[in-house]
Write a structure and sequence with these properties.
Blueprint: H1 6-18, H2 21-35, H3 52-56, H4 59-77, H5 82-85, H6 87-96, H7 102-119, H8 125-142
Helix pairs in contact: 1-8, 2-4, 2-7, 7-8
Length: 147
């Protein structure tokens, strides 16, 4: 079980309470699909993903980016039981969707960049450490089914 400090808990809750899911989620997924184009193979039913402009304007990408952030919100509410919180999603992504678990880390890196840009100077080293610890626990939980 992961040990969370009071600062980490408060920081994660603060970040997510201020986050505009409909902006940050789509921006993070868009960045991931552009920077790491091989991740697009999991979104074949999303239509045109042929270039950055198409990805940025794709409503299905935007919708799924928002869905991802709502999924992370589940982790914020269950920080002491992340493995069970993400057990069903882990099974879905590994057994049905066959998503390479390394892609969860790529997406978390893109999300960190987007959040850092939104928070600006408030995204201190300590805040980043807490945020990335949270994302690392989510990524590990999502990859649990793969092991």
């Amino acid at each position: 079980m992961v040990q969370w400090t009071d600062f980490e808990r408060a920081t994660i809750q603060d970040i997510f309470s201020k986050m505009d899911y409909e902006v940050v989620g789509p921006a993070a997924l868009t960045r991931c699909l552009i920077v790491y184009p091989w991740t697009q193979r999991y979104f074949g039913n999303f239509g045109n993903l042929y270039n950055a402009a198409a990805i940025m304007g794709n409503p299905m990408v935007a919708k799924h980016g928002t869905t991802i952030l709502h999924g992370l919100d589940r982790g914020v509410k269950n920080m002491d039981d992340m493995k069970n919180t993400y057990a069903e999603l882990s099974v879905l992504h590994s057994e049905k969707l066959h998503v390479d678990p390394d892609n969860f880390k790529l997406l978390s890196d893109c999300l960190t960049i987007v959040v850092a840009a939104k928070l600006g100077k408030a995204f201190t080293g300590e805040v980043q450490r807490a945020f990335q610890k949270f994302l690392a626990v989510v990524v590990a939980s999502m990859g649990k089914q793969y092991h």
